[in-house]
Amino acid sequence: MKYLFSPFNYRLSDPSSIPNLTLQHLSIVGIAMLFSVVIAIPIGILVSRYRRVYLPVITIAGMLYSIPGIAFVAVLITITGLTLKTILVPLVAYNQLALIRNTVASINGIDPALVQVAQAIGMNRRQTVGRVLLPLALPVIVAGIRIATVTTIGIASLAGFIGQGGLGSLIFINITVRDYDAILAGAVLLAALAIAADVLLLALQTALNRGRSALTVS
Amino acid sequence: MPGIAFHSVSKRFGGSDRPAVEDVTFAVPEGSTCMLVGRSGAGKTTLLRMVNRLIEPTSGTILVSGRDVLEEDPIRLRRHIGYVIQQVGLFPHMHVAENIRVTAEVGGGWTRKRLEERVDHLLALVGLPASEYRRRFPRQLSGGQQQRVGLARALMTDPSILLMDEPFGALDAITRGQMQDELLRIQRDVRKTILFVTHDIDEALKLGSQVAVMHHGRLLQLGAPADLLTGPADEVVARLVGSDDVLRELRYLTASCAPDEAFPAPPAGSQPLPSSPADASLLDVMLKLLETRAPALAVVDADGRPARYVTLGSIISTLQKGRGRQ
Q1: Which of A41, A39, A36, A37 is nearest to A137 (CA)?
Q2: 3-state secondary structure string, A106-165?
């Protein structure tokens, strides 16, 4: 654990220092999550409206999810080369399954009687969405984002494999030089990041879930 | 002017061969409670939902406070009509105070202070101390308490009309009885025009100033509870109200239903006769007669003067009057 605690590895001027790699890792995860959510949530809303497309959409998302990470990246190298795109595409693709599924579940889980009450007490469309549908759906959507974020933090280590930095580079670069202490540091930091993200998003999810049973937190 | 008036209202849903509601005409006088009773599929809820345009009638007109609902903006219309359904109707992510004030908030025009005062007033009205219940969430309340909040929510904007769709249907028998008593108490204060859907005939007879019996989308009979019991329009109504159920008749027929017995005023100095107001049930009258072993009971007017007399014999003949139809 010497690597992890040596102040030498925390110099901000060094692009491969621990703080810089962590920041780089987080920005890859952040960009990937942003694209994932922007794609998956509209798809989820559409799928919940048109039930017939649910099975095909979920099947495709499931197929994407089943591609091994290394293979996905390897194939993409032949198309997009050693660029950031090569790691972002698989990350966004993997996230679709959890995000679409939770978005659909969040909308289908809303009791239709509540929508009718909203209408009956004179809510207009905007009020129904803002005061009833969104607050009810959000905790389940955030639960999906939480699962996706934690997996993305792990898989984003493949960025190191194609020279795009992040905490994964601590592992991939040091495998060749057999610096096991540095590899361990990379693994510990990745795990810590994943746990921290999980705890933070769980707190957000719980806060959004106000008034409802803790059992619905998944 | 009636609170709610239906003029040959019909509703036919697409894909159904018979109308859900067919040519229904009746009026609910302002400040009175009209119970819509019938089996499931009789068209009660459809008729109720046409009042606030959750469902649009196929033909006919509905007037609310004299105005044709089809000419009103549905959202504005709904903001002026209270609506209570079974306990599922509370928003689970809002605490009690939020659930109640939301009906006023969607319409706008309330100051924060007025909202809070109104919520506290309504919580007191429905028997939930504000200090204790304001910040509770629906899942922290019992079924009966949730329904009280539902009623408070419907009353928030002080609408003149309340639509209630089987509000007590999911409650246990004891709680249901308590809520019915509460509604009667609250209605004495607020005097709303209430249209109340139920399939429970006892609930209809207990709460209604009028009872409208529906069957297969048609209105079979409209009348006061006593009229339905003593003069059911046909077999279906008779079966539904169970006009051969002696206990039910005793419970819902009032002292004023019994024929006046020519009873000589008791001689001065003798034991005074027991007395009851005209709206006491025949059951109460009968029990009083049996307990006191008096030959007759005086039905007193508003000033407490005996207006007429009821004997056990006149009670029996009242019950037989209803039976004659069978």
Answers
A1: A41
A2: HHHCCCHHHHHHHHHCCCCHHHHHHHHHHHHHHHHHHHHHHHHHHHHHHHCCHHHHCCCC
Q: Once rounded to an integer, what is the mean pLDDT over residues B267-282?
A: 79
The boundaries of every CATH 3.10.580.10 domain in chain B are: 250-323
How many A/B residue pairs have CB atoms within 8 Å? 64
A60-118 pLDDT tens trace: 999 999 999 999 999 999 999 999 999 999 999 999 999 999 999 999 999 998 999 99
Task: State how far the Cα of A37 lies from the Cα of A41, in Å rounded to an integer.
Answer: 6
Assess whether pLDDT exceeds 60 at residue B324.
no
Domain B250-323 bears CATH identifier 3.10.580.10: yes
Q: Which residues of B194-213 are buried (b: 16+ CB within 10 A; e: fewer)?
A: bbbbbbbbbbbbbbbebbbb
Contact across the interface for A121 and B79, Cβ inside 8 Å: yes
Q: Which residues of B touch A (CB under 8 A)?
A: 52, 54, 75-80, 83, 85-86, 88-89, 91-95, 102-103, 106-107, 137-139, 153
Residue B277 has φ and ψ, to the nearest 5°, of -70, 165
> Span B222-249, mean pLDDT?
84
Residues carrying CATH 3.40.50.300, chain B: 4-241
How distant is the Cα of A128 from the closest Cα of chain B, in angstroms? 10
- The predicted model scores a pTM of 0.80
Q: Do A211 and B88 touch (CB under 8 A)?
A: no
Domain covering B4-241 in this structure, CATH number = 3.40.50.300
Chain length of chain B:
326
Distance of residue A35 Cα from the nearest chain B Cα, in angstroms:
29
Domains and CATH numbers, chain A: 16-211 (1.10.3720.10)
In the block, tokens 């051969």 appear at B244
Shortest Cα distance from A106 to chain B (angstroms)?
14
Which residues in chain B touch residue A123, judged by CB atoms under 8 angstroms apart?
Answer: 75, 106
SS3 content of chain A, % helix, strand, coil (to 5): 80, 0, 20
The Cα B86–Cα B7 span in angstroms is 28
Phi and psi at A30, nearest 5°, equal: -60, -45
Where do runs of H (alpha helix) occur along chain B?
Answer: 44-51, 74-79, 96-107, 112-125, 130-133, 143-155, 173-190, 201-207, 225-230, 235-241, 246-252, 282-292, 312-323
